[in-house]
Amino acid sequence: MASVQSAQNAGLLQSRTEEDEKQRVQGSHGEIISTLPVEKSWRADIPLYQYQGFWYYASAVEGIMWVQQHFKPRKEDVLLASFPKSGTTWLKSLMFAIMNRSRFDLTVSHHFLTSSPHELVPFLEYYLHQNIPFPDPYTSSSLPHLFHTHTPFISLPQPLIHSQCRIVYICRNPKDVFISTFFFHPIGDLLLSLEDAFDKFCQGISYNGPFWDHMLEYWKASLVSPQRILFMKYEDVKRDSLSQVKRLAEFVGRPFSSEEEGKGLIEEIVELCSFGNLSNLEANKTGAINLGGVRVGKDEFFRKGEIGDWKNHLTVEMADRLDRIVEEKLGAYGLTFGDYH
Length: 341
Known about the structure:
alpha/beta, single chain
């Protein structure tokens, strides 16, 4: 009985110590954030801070600093990365299903019935605010951990950059990214008109912007280390989901067997993770997720999931302006979106 009590006391002491450390670190982070360049965001109530060349809400800066200081992946782990509104929810769903397909029957019972993809694969930069502990990198396990982040490549923690863990990055036509981002914000919270928000987006002032630097860093890294960093386009996954799911599985070292393919397992995963299926699950229609103090309804992550919706909202002049930016910033490096209209 005494040993049990001692163990409980030790656990309580450790918990208090960790909480004290968090508060101390957050205090020092707050001091740093107060010195950063600041801009008005698209929302009426939350400013943007520039950290290491990119714009974030203060809570995200805190979370990124926490990750930089404490996160250490294992070589077996997989990191998903994306610029916001570029297919994040879809990528999380597909990869979670691929990596866990032997653990549950996709046709009968699966985690998507009870949890949002963002609960199954939380945003790494919000582990701090959601009180999610980082896995111990020194524990032996045959099961890899799956993470996701919107953090630019330059701001990833050094242990991750120099590790052998695989990274999958997904990008999307910036014109569709802008429209999806604009309508992701509840209208009552928006400070800017579509035209003014577009101007900010083209200046690089948006959450995690500039988009061109975000995409370009991961693109360059994938060219240097293609065996470790897979660069994907949302439009490719949309147009040929089956081959892209196979590509994902092979990249993370979990290729589909001929038996799995024969049973139609790839098709099952594609259907399970389709926009139509996920958006109609009760787990994604009710409730909210806390993203650094901002509560976002789970249903807000599902809008249209289409290619080319920008045509319904942007003028010809606006589209031409964004095309010129993409060509200037990305075209010289071979990263283009010319075929995705």
